[in-house]
């Protein structure tokens, strides 16, 4: 415990932001906020940095900052080229935990530079290769974060990398991608790698099929034309039907479950072929980094992400952090690049105030280029209102 400028005893400030996409990682955001607070108050101000993520891009970086070990290996990228991808591991009393981020292996950012998306043939195989690598190196629990995917293959490539065979009518293994699933005739799970449990960390609640499904909602974001979306929808429907018929899992039932459509249907693949459990991304990952222990006794929590908008209010990282802090009666404020929700909506979500880079620099391009120094200035404003007299 320490004394603030009023002379009263107070706990630490907990800085728990998500990334600012395209600008700063979550550990970088936390570092700049901490620097700004200490510059405004005192170098002795106790600040605890806990970068967070909700299962999407940046999840591996966030848990590595909390003490997990980074592991790198070559895997198959979404377009078939080899890419260097990372995951994180930590030994727990009940076994080794591996945190795997789909975007590291199968994300849009893993497409070769200068090439267009390949929505019909993009594969999740590299994600399965990461799971296999972790399992073969002792992981007994796999936490699979979904988001930012380039593929719409229902997790078919992931399953194939783990020993599941997806066969056409002639008994040949299917080529990569969601379009090929239209030719699926049988599934053989007898050779699947086993010996580990899988928890999917995702806040996406889309089903696999239909107008709110993986192809219709997310396919266009991955370069799919309306014609491509119809092809991908047919492939995913075939996958669900054959999975149910062939005993690989109750595929048609799983297809309708919330989260089955996550990451181009990789949620469905994890549920069907890996017997996975889907958990709310930010809540599960906060438990993983023992957030409750850090926030107990804190004077203030500062969270945030690049854009605070309607999607934030639907359960993304800042709202998850606010809910966890509320259990301990600790006030929460947020930092962001920009925001499009009002003060009343923020307070209803447990966030007392939000400070945006655009409040002090209206040029969005400069905000992205100079996000670190601007965050330090925002932290000074937060300190003046919430920490200093």
From TrEMBL:
<comment type="similarity">
    <text>Belongs to the glycerate kinase type-1 family.</text>
</comment>
<dbReference type="Pfam" id="PF02595">
    <property type="entry name" value="Gly_kinase"/>
</dbReference>
<dbReference type="GO" id="GO:0031388">
    <property type="term" value="P:organic acid phosphorylation"/>
</dbReference>
<dbReference type="InterPro" id="IPR018197">
    <property type="entry name" value="Glycerate_kinase_RE-like"/>
</dbReference>
<dbReference type="InterPro" id="IPR036129">
    <property type="entry name" value="Glycerate_kinase_sf"/>
</dbReference>
<protein>
    <submittedName>
        <fullName>Glycerate kinase</fullName>
        <ecNumber>2.7.1.31</ecNumber>
    </submittedName>
</protein>
<dbReference type="InterPro" id="IPR004381">
    <property type="entry name" value="Glycerate_kinase"/>
</dbReference>
<dbReference type="InterPro" id="IPR018193">
    <property type="entry name" value="Glyc_kinase_flavodox-like_fold"/>
</dbReference>
<keyword id="KW-0808">Transferase</keyword>
<keyword id="KW-0418">Kinase</keyword>
<dbReference type="GO" id="GO:0008887">
    <property type="term" value="F:glycerate kinase activity"/>
</dbReference>
């Amino acid at each position: 415990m320490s004394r603030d400028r009023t002379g009263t005893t107070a706990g630490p400030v907990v800085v728990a932001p998500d990334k600012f996409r395209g600008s700063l990682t979550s550990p970088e955001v936390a570092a700049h906020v901490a620097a700004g607070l200490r510059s405004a108050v005192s170098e002795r101000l106790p600040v605890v940095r806990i970068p967070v993520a909700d299962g999407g891009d940046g999840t591996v970086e966030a848990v590595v900052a909390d003490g997990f070990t980074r592991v790198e290996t070559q895997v198959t990228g979404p377009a078939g080229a080899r890419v260097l991808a990372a995951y994180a591991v930590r030994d727990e009393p009940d076994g080794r935990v591996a945190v795997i981020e789909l975007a590291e292996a199968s994300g849009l950012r893993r497409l070769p530079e200068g090439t267009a998306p390949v929505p019909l043939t993009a594969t999740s195989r590299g994600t399965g290769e990461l799971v296999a690598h972790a399992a073969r190196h002792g992981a007994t629990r796999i936490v699979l974060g979904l988001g930012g995917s380039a593929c719409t293959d229902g997790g078919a490539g992931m399953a194939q990398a783990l020993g599941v065979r997806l066969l056409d009518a002639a008994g040949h293994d299917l080529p990569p991608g969601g379009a090929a699933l239209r030719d699926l005739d049988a599934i053989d799970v007898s050779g699947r790698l086993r010996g580990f449990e899988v928890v999917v960390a995702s806040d996406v609640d889309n089903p696999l099929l239909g107008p709110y499904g993986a192809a219709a909602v997310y396919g266009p974001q991955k370069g799919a034309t309306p014609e491509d979306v119809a092809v991908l929808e047919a492939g995913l429907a075939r996958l669900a039907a054959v999975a149910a018929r062939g005993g690989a899992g109750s595929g048609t039932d799983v297809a309708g479950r919330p989260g089955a459509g996550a990451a181009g249907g990789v949620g469905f693949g994890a549920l069907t072929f890996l017997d996975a459990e889907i958990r709310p991304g930010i809540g599960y990952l906060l438990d993983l980094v023992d957030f409750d222990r850090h926030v107990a006794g804190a004077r203030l929590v500062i969270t945030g992400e690049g854009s605070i908008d309607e999607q934030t209010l639907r359960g993304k990282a800042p709202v998850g952090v606010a809910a966890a802090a509320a259990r301990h009666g600790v006030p929460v404020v947020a930092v962001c690049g920009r925001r499009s929700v009002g003060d009343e909506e923020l307070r209803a979500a447990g966030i007392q105030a939000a400070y945006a880079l655009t409040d002090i620099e209206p040029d969005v391009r400069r905000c992205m280029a100079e996000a670190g120094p601007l965050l330090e200035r925002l932290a000074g404003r937060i300190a003046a209102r919430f920490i200093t007299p």
